[in-house]
């Protein structure tokens, strides 16, 4: 399935989760942090969605200070309406899987959630917790892990999300990133103009996106 039309939909929502064992902060700090009881989740604007080979636009406000980070993530796409779903049946509500790059800089901008390169049916990927996932920046591997390292698997995360909330067909769940993000390195590894970022997921393929600084028309 092509992701282009889905990226332009007006109904789909992006749901972002931090459900890997080590995430966002330095490996040392993450190791010492208590394991969360529930998934940490939040929404991103649908305008953040973009295709697997599109440019990552960086507007002027995000150029003024360093901090542009990469995050390879398993992406689950909801296939049918889901509410109060038990964990044992959660995977049956998933249309398929993709890989995404949750670009971050304290604030989300348009085009900062590339995903794809297609949506692989859940009938093909029957176990989403056994897949290699990685990120490369300019050809150098900076993240290399497995979805088995998630604290909360896809089924548990979906079941939790659906409690009292209706998930709609086309909703997209970015499930969190493993260790190796730029913020967790010494010194930090921030994305720069013209950097090429590749995120890949076993059985799915890769998204390859180039960072591009753009000039904002509006002035504050």
How would you characterize the overall build of this protein?
The chain has 220 residues and is mainly beta. It has four helices and twelve strands; from the N terminus they run H-E-H-E-E-E-H-E-E-E-E-E-H-E-E-E. Strands 2-1-10-5-6-7-3 form a seven-stranded mixed β-sheet, covered by helices on one side. It has a five-stranded mixed β-sheet with strand order 4-12-11-8-9. A hairpin with a 2-residue loop joins strand 8 and strand 9. The longest helix has 8 residues. It starts with a helix and ends in a 7-residue tail after the last strand. The relative contact order is 0.28.
Q: How would you sum up this structure in a few lines?
A:
The chain has 220 residues and is mainly beta. The protein contains four helices and twelve strands; from the N terminus they run H-E-H-E-E-E-H-E-E-E-E-E-H-E-E-E.
User: Strand order, biggest sheet?
Assistant: 2-1-10-5-6-7-3
* Category from helices, strands and their pairing: mainly beta
Q: In percent, how helical is the residue content? A: 10-25%
Order of helices and strands: HEHEEEHEEEEEHEEE
Task: Compute the CA-based radius of gyration.
Answer: 16 Å
- Please report the total strand number as a whole number: 12
- The low-confidence runs, each spanning 5 or more residues with pLDDT under 50, are 19-31
Determine the N-to-C terminus distance.
41 Å
Count of DSSP helices?
4
Kindly state the mean pLDDT as a whole number? Answer: 87
